[in-house]
């Protein structure tokens, strides 16, 4: 009697059957990540413009809600929200480079908050295995926040675009790894029946 477990054990059927689409998607996302990392300023400006457009759409939604709100106080609050969203969106669309600087400051604040939370969690979980990983991750987030702040405003030209690209690359490579696990676990019949 063999004690070897077949490669498909523990791997969901859906992953074994659909690994190709996950591999293709992961490859595209990884390539986009590399492109974003190679052109961080253009990526950051594009994100600033996209965020501005989303704020304008949000303003229009709040205007529509203002007309359907119950009572005049609801309409006033929806109108105020529409004004805030609209001004933020127009400001980002009118000058995306300034918006990129604002996004960099928000990114720094995120790293500070995330790092502080991870350090506190790591210290509170000292009796758990691998608690040190939380402490190291939080410390790296704080170091990155300090470095971005010390280099500000010049870091605004590359930080957001580069870090978004790095995130896309990491996500894409993870998807590729999961897809290859599905391919390895796929039986010949699952590989033959599913087209590319």
Your description of this structure?
The protein has 196 residues and is mostly helical. 82% of the residues lie in helices and 0% in strands. It has eight helices and no strands. It has helices at 13-17, 19-38, 40-68, 71-94, 96-124, 131-151, 159-185, 188-193. Helix 4 packs across helix 5. The longest helix has 29 residues, at 40-68. The protein is extended, with a radius of gyration of 23 Å.
SSE inventory with pairings:
Layout lengths: L12 H5 L1 H20 L1 H29 L2 H24 L1 H29 L6 H21 L7 H27 L2 H6 L3
Helix pairs in contact: 2-7, 3-4, 3-5, 3-7, 4-5, 5-6
Calculate Rg over CA atoms: 23 Å
* Count of β-strands: 0
Query: What is the share of helical residues?
Result: over 70%
Task: Give the CA-based shape.
Answer: extended
Q: What value does the average pLDDT take?
A: 85
Strand-residue proportion: under 5%
Q: How far apart lie the N and C ends?
A: 37 Å
Order of helices and strands: HHHHHHHH
Low-pLDDT residue intervals, each spanning 5 or more residues: none
Number of helices: 8
Largest sheet: none
Instruction: Return the structural class.
Output: mainly alpha
What would the keywords be for this entry?
82% helix, mainly alpha
Produce a short descriptive summary:
This protein has helices at residues 13-17, 19-38, 40-68, 71-94, 96-124, 131-151, 159-185, 188-193. The protein is mostly helical and 196 residues long. The longest helix is centred in the first third of the chain and has 29 residues, at 40-68.
């Amino acid at each position: 009697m063999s004690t070897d477990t077949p490669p498909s054990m523990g791997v969901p059927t859906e992953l074994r059957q659909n690994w190709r689409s996950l591999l293709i998607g992961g490859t595209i996302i990884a390539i986009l990540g590399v492109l974003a990392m190679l052109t961080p300023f253009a990526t950051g400006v594009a994100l600033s413009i996209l965020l501005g457009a989303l704020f304008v759409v949000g303003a229009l939604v709040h205007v529509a809600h203002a007309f359907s709100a119950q009572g005049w106080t609801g309409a006033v609050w929806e109108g105020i929200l529409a004004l805030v969203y609209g001004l933020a969106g127009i400001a980002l669309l009118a000058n995306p480079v300034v918006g990129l600087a604002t996004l960099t400051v928000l990114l720094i604040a995120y790293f500070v908050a995330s790092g502080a939370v991870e350090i506190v969690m790591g210290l509170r979980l000292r009796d758990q295995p691998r608690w040190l990983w939380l402490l190291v991750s939080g410390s790296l987030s704080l170091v990155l926040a300090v470095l971005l702040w010390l280099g500000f405003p010049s870091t605004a030209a590359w930080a957001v675009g580069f870090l978004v690209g790095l995130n896309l690359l990491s996500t894409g490579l993870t998807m590729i790894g999961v897809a290859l696990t599905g391919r390895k676990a796929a039986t010949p019949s699952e590989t033959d029946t599913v087209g590319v």
